[in-house]
Design goal:
about 280 residues, alpha+beta, Immunoglobulin-like, 5-stranded antiparallel β-sheet, two-stranded antiparallel sheet, 9 helices, about 15% strand
């Protein structure tokens, strides 16, 4: 339990940590900040970002290869999709002024299923985008029909910027993790484990709350600029701490409420710098 809880707190903080640090007192240029989740810190499955379309016996799956999106995925999945995109990126940039890459697969539930991969289009904000380049990944991609259980895939390149709402997705993930590591059930388990194994063997509630606060508000200690997604995380943390004091769920240990109050007071004071 010790390592898992600290890892959760650190993962929450690292999810949108700033890419560059600056000396205390220096102003950081917003353009120098990387708003994306650091590579290797995602947790989602590929299915979460994949759109599935069914046309009779034909199943079509479309997954964006935008770096900001695929960094939300589990490390092994991110590495695989990142490598696929990077191999084709030079060709994509040669074919389009604003290339958007997608991994597209076609699967057949019946034999002799006709399909035309060039007919795939994307509708985005009133625009109909057609592929400007298709790079097959499987040997039979050019065949006009698919056999039963056949799966063919390719990298599609579209010309035209697509705005992805991954800012909101990241914030939802962070709020979910905040809730998971500050539930009454978890607090109760921590107290039970402390009584059973002793305080030296587990992360006590005060340690958890202090580690969480230190991780979420780390920029203020380092004197660096706070990116937008980190500010949203800090507001979510402040709201959660206040909620654990003013509307503590039934069964919340007194230790958790008390240290939530202390965290909220400290965060509220620090939060004036966010406005």
């Amino acid at each position: 339990m010790n390592g898992n809880l600290l890892a959760a707190a650190l993962a929450l903080a690292c999810a949108t940590a700033p890419a560059l640090e600056h000396p205390p007192g220096a102003l950081a240029a917003p353009a120098a900040q990387d708003p994306m989740v650091p590579a290797g810190h995602g947790t989602l499955r590929q299915d979460v970002i994949t759109v599935s379309l069914r046309d009779g016996p034909l199943l079509i799956k479309v997954a964006p290869l935008d770096e900001g999106i695929i960094r939300l995925l589990a490390p092994d999945t991110w590495q695989r999709l990142h490598a696929l995109a990077e191999v084709r990126r030079p060709d994509a940039e040669a074919a389009a002024s604003e290339p958007e890459l997608f991994l597209v697969s076609f699967f057949s539930y019946q034999p002799n299923t006709a399909f035309n991969p060039e007919n795939l289009q994307i509708s985005h904000q009133g625009r109909l985008l057609q592929p400007v380049a298709i790079h097959p990944l499987t040997g039979g991609f050019g065949r006009p029909v698919l056999e039963q259980q056949d799966n063919q895939s390719a990298i599609y390149v579209f010309d035209g910027r697509i705005d992805y709402p991954y800012h909101g997705e990241v914030l939802d993930l962070q709020r979910s993790l905040l809730s998971q590591i500050t539930t009454p059930m978890l607090f109760a388990r921590i107290r039970d484990a402390e009584m059973k194994y002793g305080p030296r063997e587990v992360v006590a509630i005060p340690e958890l709350m202090e580690a969480l606060s230190a991780a979420v508000w780390s920029e203020l200690e380092r004197g660096v600029s706070v990116p937008a997604m980190r500010r949203d995380l800090q507001r979510a943390h402040l709201d959660r701490m206040i909620g654990l004091v003013t509307e503590a769920p039934t069964g919340t240990p007194a230790d958790a409420t008390r240290f939530s109050g202390a965290s909220a007071a400290s965060a509220s004071h620090a939060g004036t710098r966010l406005r």
